[in-house]
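User: Predict the structure for this protein chain, please.
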Amino acid sequence: MTTESTASRTAFSPDTASTRLHRTLRVRLCEGDFTPGEVISIRRIAAQYGTGTMPAREAIRWLVTEGALIFSDSRKIIVPELSHDRFHEILFARKNLETEVSRQAFDNIGATDIEALERIDEQINEAIAQGDLVSYMRGNYQFHFHIYRLSQSQVLLPLVEILWLQYGPSMRYICTRWGASSIADDYHREVTQALRHDDRSAFCQAIAADIEQGMLLLE
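Assistant: Here is the predicted structure, written as structure tokens:
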């Protein structure tokens, strides 16, 4: 592994009000800040983020094309409610794609990255202990994507992001129902320990086990 953090490469995108809002809303969806069935108001989003209705409309329509939001009728846009089978299928796809993205990232993960991951994991543990679901969801997203962006994958990483857009709201609902303490096994710790030991196989196995834990919550 490298000894320095390697920045991920991102494709160029124009810096406009709609693209900035789109990026912000993507993160919020991945972190579970929206709930399944929630109605998304263009006017409310525009007011909340201080943009015009046109940039808000463009950002939201972009999320519709990505499957993160859907039209429930000709005028109403909502966060989709995923069926048991659809959610399980997303987790299955996550396990396969994210294990490969992690394998690609492994050689780019440096000492400073490991330290950052350990700090995030400590914050996640504190959030679980305090029953702070918002901080848990945010930390979980930050932990995984700190790793995934280091893969620098121009093919798999965008697919992983699409899956998280659909996964985040429903996982938030499940954790609300069962509590953050239902995440019993600290596979994040196994991830960082594998990195400390320069063990690629154990690292990928821990990533896969962490995702499988989400599957078990569906049983």
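Residues 10 and 104 are 16 Å apart (CA to CA).
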